[in-house]
Amino acid sequence: MKQTIYLVIAVAIRSSLAQVSAPWLELNRTLDGRLEQGIPFSRPCFQRVSGAVAGQFDSSECDFVRANYFNHDTRASTLGAYINVQWETCQATSANCLIDPSTGLSLSSNSTCSQGSVMLFGIAVKSASDVIAAFEFSTKYSIPLVIKNTGHDYKGRSSGPDSLALWISMESNFIPNGCPVNTPVGPAAGVTFDSLIDFAEDHNITIPTGADTTVGAAGGYIQLLTRLHSVLSNTLGLAVDRALQFEVVTPNGNHIFANECQNQDMFFALRGGGGGTFGVVLSVTTKALPQRPISVMQLGINSSISTTQKLVAFMAENALDMANAGWGGYIVPNAGFVMANPITIAKQSDPIPKKMEEFATQVLSGNFTFAIEPSYKSFFTKFVQSVPVGVPFTTTSRLIPVDHFTAEATRDRLVDMIITASQNVTLPILFAHTPFHFGDQGGTSVTPAWRNSLWHIAFADTWDISSVATTRQTYSKLNTLMDGFRKFVPNSGAYVNEADVYETDFQDTFWGENYDRLLQIKNKYDPNHLLDCWQCVGWKGALDSKYRCYVSI
Length: 553
Hints:
This protein is an alpha+beta fold. It is about 30% helix and about 20% strand. The strands form 6 sheets. The chain has a 7-stranded antiparallel beta sheet with strand order 18-15-17-16-20-21-19. The chain has a 5-stranded mixed beta sheet with strand order 2-7-1-9-8, covered by helices on one side. The protein has a 3-stranded antiparallel beta sheet with strand order 12-11-13.
């Protein structure tokens, strides 16, 4: 299996690059000349720049940028690009290097390209020794660190001005050694879901993934909880439930393996405590499940307040029965649902599919589909859709415990709150696939709220990134919207990577009773806090200059 890991370097430069060239030249020599420049994705479309921005204007390259502006694969494999473009900018000042891809015109007020939160340099890392060298360099020159996998981070922890970021990129030719059914699979941290899905299909196994095929399977998905959950999580568990071993380089310079038999504290931390916090993961070994057929129900509706109300109420009323029967999936209140079951080969005449079809067609006049797909890839290709890319996009979320579905009055209030919130955001999604059926088999560090909840509800928005006021207003609106749910389920939690960027009491919300232990592990392996990030374990607060591009709300 081939992999490329890029260590992305950025430093606070108040003067010309030449004045800091000596340390960078030293690092470049240490790493055999692999220092690269971090160039903002849309840089070729700008004739003017603000500050020391690398790259140059190139009309043909600009045509490529415009044609691929909304392309997941292009952004995930480009050093200076992010899936959600606000993390390429300095949101607090609106300094950016963004364009309107339909015209090629700048979104900045003065038509200049600024570095924003994009890194300045990158290093192709080929071994653990390269990571150790980078840690030493960061310590010597007091340069803060962040880690970038494929740029899927709704809270901006993989970018930042004046930072040293570790970018783990993927290659399309993911060809690991043969893996028989029921044995582990060990992807490198940069291997993405599309490669993993193809590999699983070729070897007759099942490896559940998130919705976006360009997410890194190890570095982001498992540790940082980026798409920690999948449509099959209700029965097959979260990604951290299937993790068997991590290969990691710690900030104190050790190259270790963490599993149930050695470095057990690190193993616990990486199974839900957050990627880019405890060490740099080079690979992970995860359980591979037997290939299995997947029963699928899909509903499409014509959006109206009436149909949305009826849909959410019906799904909430049947949520517990569906989870107990092995069903899990996505509900978009104004569009419909996709529900899947990997443990039962259902029949359309079975009680739950029959009930769903009758409701869908007779009450909602919707389009109902029932299918049995032979494999996860077949199901994924036909029924799973990804979220927007190439636009500013942020979300807020909450886990809804099972007891809020069993009492009619409480359930009715939940439905009303969801309907109201859905009318005020761009994209509401009800993830009805928490690991409720799977249960808690121990050993992970995610919030226990995952295990006793039926839904993970998320509300997402887009906005005009060129306006600081609008940026601040959007984050504030989502934060206020979620306040009602925080009060409604005060003892629950939230999924860290789809949570509010400005989540209150983040320690308890993301990790619950596990936080104190995680903090001890953080201080053991990273006593100097080289790997601090926004609302991560051990976070010291927003006043650090590393976070100056976040707006205040």
